[in-house]
Structure formats: structure tokens, C-alpha cells
Amino acid sequence: MTTKRMSTANKKKKISELESAELKFRALLNKRDEINEQAAAARSERDSLHDKKKELQEPMRTARDKRDAAVAEMRVHKKKRDELQGKAKELIEFKRKLKGTPMGDLKTEIRVIEADIKGMEMRQQTVPVKLTEERELLDKIKARATDLQRLKKILMEQDKVQKEVKNIDASIDAFFRQADKEHEEVVRLSEEQHKFHEEAQVHAKDIGVLAATANKKHEEFLKLREDADAVHQKAMELRGKVIEIKDQKRAEVWEERNAIRDVNLATRKALDDKEKKDKVADEALQILLKKGKIEI
Question: Does the model's pTM come out above 0.90?
């Protein structure tokens, strides 16, 4: 009786332990699944952030390409502008070297010489002088005439130079006008490349923010996956315990069944032996009665 009570108590204890283990096992599985859902959400957010980052990379590259193209074109116009300004400055220096004595001074000097010659010729024609004085006067007239021809030649050369200077001035103006146009293009392209640079910087900043956020989400995903793996490991360990308890319970049931079977067999055997004894006793009794050895 005592053994039977102990067996019943052990059985209840096993059932209670199994139920507790199964409850903990299911709780761990639920926790694992919940963490896996959180990890999946973090992974989805991470992938979404990466997709947004990829979407911004194309306009950023486009803005950078436009900026680089504007910079390259700006350099071409800047080079042309500098070359034109250099040519204009060279012509200015050449013009400065061409300019000599002012034409106004030469013309005045020519008029003075012409007046001198005219005065000396008038004196020769109207004033009686000695032969020696007349020769001296003629030599002076000849010398002044030589000076006059020299100055007129210089004046002609300066007239030619002035015409060249005018042509040079026109060329200088043309070079500066072209240089101004090139400079306007330089300014326009500089503003354009600055605009595209700012646009690329904005995209780069947004991409940086998205990348940082995506990295955090990735770290969160890895941590959650690690936690889920740890919970899963605990659940598997507990599952082993549940299986062990069930195996023990099953073994106890089989042991109990075997014990009951043995008792039944022993009881059945004992009953069979008793029936045989009763039959032998009855047969012996009948023989004795027949022989009259005993009376009932």
C-alpha cells in the first residue's frame, strides 16, 4: 500500500515537472519567434534604407558628372579668355613702342622750317648781299631744306604708324570684347558647377545619413538574431529535458504495465493451481465414498 502511494506521488511529480518544462519550452519558442519577427522587421528597414541610398546615388553621380563637365568647359573658356587678354596686352605694349614724337610737334617744326626757308629765299631775292654772304645763305637754305625733307619723311612714317596704331586699337578692342565674352562664360559655368556641387553634396549628406541609419539597423538585426539563436538554444536544451521526462514517464508506464501483467499472470497461475487441487480432492473424495471408507 505504501509502495503504491509512493508510486502515485512520483507519477504526479513527473507530470507536474513535464507540464512545467513544456510550458517553459513553449514560452521560449514564443519568445524566439517574437525576436525573429523583430529581427525580420529590422532587416526589412535596413534593406529599405539601402534601397533609398541606391536611389540617391544615381542623381548624386549625375550632379557630379554635370559639375565636372561644367568645370572642364569653364577651364577651356578661362584659357581662351587669358589668351585673348594676353594678345591685347601684347598689342598695347607694341603700340606704346610704335609711338615716338607726337605728330603735332613734327608738323609745327616743319612749318617753322618752311617759314625759315621762305624768309631766307625772300632775303636772297630782295636784299643785295656779298657773294660770300649769298653762298652762306644758300648753304643755310639747302641745310634747312634737307631738315625739312627728313622731317617730312618722318611725318609720313608716323602717319603710317598712326594708321597701324588705329588698326592695333581695333584689334585690341576686338580681343578684349572676345575676352569679355569668354569671361562671362567662365562666370556662368562657375555658378553652374557650384550649383551642381551643392546638389551633389546634399545627396551625399542624405546618403551618409541613410548609410549610418542602415548600419545601426544592421547591428540591431545581428543582435536580435543572436538573441533569437540563444533563446532557440535554450529551447532546444529544454526540449531535450522534455523528451527525457517523457521517456522516463513512458518507461515508468511500461514498467507499471509489466508489473501489472506479472501480477495478473501470477494470479492466473495461482488460480489454475487451486482449481487443480480442488479437482484432485474431489476425485479422491469420490473414490473414498465409493469404497465406503468414509460417510458423509
Answer: no
Angle at 185 between CA 183 and CA 186, to 5 degrees: 60
Give me the tens of pLDDT residue by residue for the chain, a chain 296 residues long. 444 454 555 555 556 787 888 888 889 889 989 999 999 999 999 999 999 999 999 999 999 999 999 999 999 999 999 999 998 898 888 777 766 545 557 788 888 988 988 988 888 788 787 888 878 888 888 998 998 898 888 778 777 767 777 788 888 899 999 999 999 999 999 999 999 999 999 999 999 999 999 999 999 999 999 999 999 998 888 888 888 878 888 887 788 787 777 767 776 776 666 666 566 556 655 655 665 544 55
Grid cell of 144 as nine digits: 634747312
